[in-house]
Amino acid sequence: MNWKESPLLNENKLESLTKFIKANEVSSKVQEIFKDILEVETNRDFLTIDHNQRKVNVNMSLSTFERIQLSKLLSLTFPYSNISSSFHDIFPLKEDKVTQVVEELSTKGFHVCENLLEEEVCNNLITEIEKITFHTKKSTKKITGLNALNVSSISGNTAWATNQQDLLKIKEVQEIAFDESLLNLVGQFLGAEPVLCQTNCWWSVANSTHRSNLSANAQLFHQDTEYLKFVKVFVYLTDVEKENGPHQYVQGTSTTAQDALGGDYRPSNRVKDQDVEGLFGKENILTFTGKKGSVIIEDTFGLHKGTPVEEGSRLLLQLEYCNSLYFHAGYSFGLEGLLPEAYILAEKYPRIFSNFTKDVSSLNEAKFLHFNSRTIVQKIKDRIKRFL
Asked: So where are the chain's domains?
């Protein structure tokens, strides 16, 4: 299929896309990938377990410039327009603030909102999160009843929420995820109607400083590459000081890191602190400490990491939005547990809910086992690493 034959394109979109491709001399490679994106969007192949595995070579072959071009093509295909939502009280950002955040995301790569969420909202989130199951990396054992008092008993540094559907059922999570200001902020930054692709939550503790453990738990500098263009919203649900594992970000690297690191570097690689300091300057490595309720909005295609916890623990909630589920490797959502206002939003803006499916329970469980099961050989290697 030629991309021009896609059922997703009307006459006006075809004209805009053709003009952009001609004016910007878009390569045949980018056009071929764009055709594949349209096919995936049409048949919803992004819901299959092995979708990412089949697309990973495409993902790793892209330059930053090619990602930008593909994102522009997606902006013309799924253009952003103002989103009206009944959720607009829990995430208090005024219109002028939204404009500022979008500008900072496009230049620095991040914006920090200190003490944005009220204490009651955070406490309600914590209470509900304590009811869901967690797991450690590459383990299918589900852990229940985790809280600040017992989380240090886990194996490894991090325990992740097992099922993002459990998180989305929490009232306050929906009120944040579907907040009118946040959806419009994200849409303006992406340049396209946003897709809610992920909710996540994890506890971090001080159990291991081995490089393999730090790498597996995103505690070494790296770029996220799960989508073409995306933005993450991190919510601190505990006070995070220097010893509690604050998030770090290298400002300005969302458009420069890949080219600057050059050579054999691929965006999926982990990067040593000294290499980051040498290339980008120590002054550009920012550490985000903050009180419970503080929010970091970030383009994590820029270099970032969660620093290892030295004392206590850290609980963090994450939401993620993208311009397309192409490359999708994560879990999905279902309509079960949605608030009435969210159903109305889904009817008005179905693209926001592209990662929702009727078969979410079986699909997420199958993905959980696929992502976290370990062979005997892998388990032996993991044990050996602990002594290296």
From this structure: 3-77, 95-385
What H or E segment, with its residue span, contains residue 20? helix 11-23
Model confidence over 275-326: pLDDT tens digits? Answer: 999 999 999 999 999 999 999 999 999 999 989 999 999 999 999 999 999 9
Enter the tokens of residue 305: 């990491």
DSSP secondary-structure letter at 355?
Answer: T
Residue 357 structure tokens: 């499916």
Q: Is the pTM above the cut of 0.85?
A: yes
Torsion of CA 109, 114, 115, 121, to 10 degrees: 0
Give me Rg for the CA atoms of the chain.
20
Ramachandran category for residue 281: left, alpha or beta (phi over 0 → left; psi -120 to 50 → alpha):
left
What architecture does CATH give domain 95-385? Answer: Sandwich (2.60)
How far from chain centre, in Å, is Cα 218? 12
The CB density around residue 258, as the number of other CB atoms within 10 Å, is 21
- Reference 200, options 45, 95, 306; nearest CA is 306
The chain-wide mean pLDDT, for the chain, equals 91
Instruction: Determine whether 374 is exposed, middle or buried from the number of CB atoms within 10 Å of its CB (0-12, 13-18, 19+).
Output: middle
Residue 254, classified by CB atoms within 10 Å of its CB into exposed (0-12), middle (13-18) or buried (19+), is buried
In the structure encoding, which two tokens stand for residue 141, read together?
């054992």
Q: Strand (E) positions, the chain?
A: 110-113, 134-136, 158-161, 195-205, 230-236, 247-250, 285-288, 295-298, 304-306, 313-322
- Helix axis angle for 51-61 and 28-43, nearest 10°, is 160
Return d(Cα 256, Cα 228) in angstroms, integer.
15
| Residues 248, 250: Cα–Cα separation, whole Å | 7
* Cα separation, 220 vs 306, whole angstroms: 7
End-to-end CA distance of the chain: 51
